[in-house]
Write a structure and sequence with these properties.
Blueprint: E1 2-6, E2 23-29, E3 34-41, H1 58-70, E4 75-78, H2 85-88, E5 93-97, H3 102-111, H4 113-120, E6 128-131
Parallel strand pairs: 1-4, 4-5, 5-6
Antiparallel strand pairs: 1-2, 2-3
Length: 133
């Protein structure tokens, strides 16, 4: 399973919304290990959202979503997810980590691998997971 991780430095998850990360680390994930297979720049990092758009910016969600889907990503991991969660749950399993360190968050993914994988195989809107120790 491929997971996109919102991190500017591969050490900590960004303390902003997933869509505001400078880059995404694409990890290959299974029950026993994770490894980075690609790093991509956020194609929408310079996109200016409208201030009055409290429901999330669909154009921004589509731009990021399209890029991640092209890479075969099935789940996204961040510390915070913005209002676009409504739009992205149609295509990705949303994983919200209460741990800020990437290594700790990845361990939580491995610990919950079976449930996450099952959810990723569902059609339509997917559930989201809040991961904590």
């Amino acid at each position: 399973m491929k997971i996109a991780v919102a991190s500017d430095d591969r050490i900590k998850l960004v303390n902003r919304h997933f869509g505001d990360a400078k880059r995404y680390y694409i990890y290959d994930l299974n029950k026993s290990m994770t490894r980075v297979i690609e790093v991509i720049e956020n194609p929408m990092k310079d996109y200016e959202e409208k201030e009055e758009d409290f429901k999330g910016d669909e154009k921004k969600a589509k731009g990021i979503g399209f890029t991640l889907k092209e890479k075969g990503v099935t789940g996204i991991l961040g510390h915070k997810i913005g209002p676009n969660i409504v739009n992205i749950r149609k295509k990705f399993v949303v994983l919200i980590s209460r741990c800020i360190k990437v290594d700790e968050a990845l361990q939580l993914l491995r610990d919950n691998y079976t449930k996450i994988e099952e959810e990723s195989l569902k059609n339509g809107e997917k559930e989201y997971f809040i991961l904590k120790k």
